[in-house]
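Please fill in the sequence for the structure shown.

STRUCTURE ENCODING:
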């Protein structure tokens, strides 16, 4: 679970004071799959709470000595105990997908019409009709 970002605290170790959230809570947020971290993440601190400068789920699993799920719940802005949130919002737009689909359906229609014109005698019939003089 990610409560957001908090500024470092005063003192040499820079450990911030994090107000604990007491009691039973209902949490809402978005699931986020963090990218894999190359190399080993540096762990700061000698005792708990330890700090990782970036989310490294494999390293967190090692420190906790238990499996860690491969995603993080990023809490909603109105959830209890949330700090500053600086992660980008995921927005999904179907506009570009619809335009892309229309482009390909249009191209398929053009290919179909050209194929019909070349695979049948339609062109010769249209050409013969335009050459034939009126017999009135």
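FILLED IN BY: designer on duty
SEQUENCE:
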């Amino acid at each position: 679970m990610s409560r957001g970002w908090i500024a470092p605290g005063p003192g040499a170790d820079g450990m911030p004071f994090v107000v604990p959230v007491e009691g039973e809570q209902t949490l809402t947020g978005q699931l986020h799959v963090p990218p894999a971290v190359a190399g080993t993440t540096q762990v700061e601190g000698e005792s708990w709470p330890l700090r990782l400068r970036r989310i490294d789920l494999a390293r967190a699993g090692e420190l906790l000595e238990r499996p860690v799920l491969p995603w993080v719940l990023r809490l909603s802005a109105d959830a209890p105990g949330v700090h500053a949130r600086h992660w980008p919002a995921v927005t999904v737009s179907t506009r570009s997908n619809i335009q892309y689909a229309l482009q390909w359906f249009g191209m398929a229609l053009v290919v179909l019409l050209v194929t019909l014109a070349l695979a049948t005698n339609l062109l010769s019939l249209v050409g013969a009709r335009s050459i034939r003089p009126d017999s009135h």
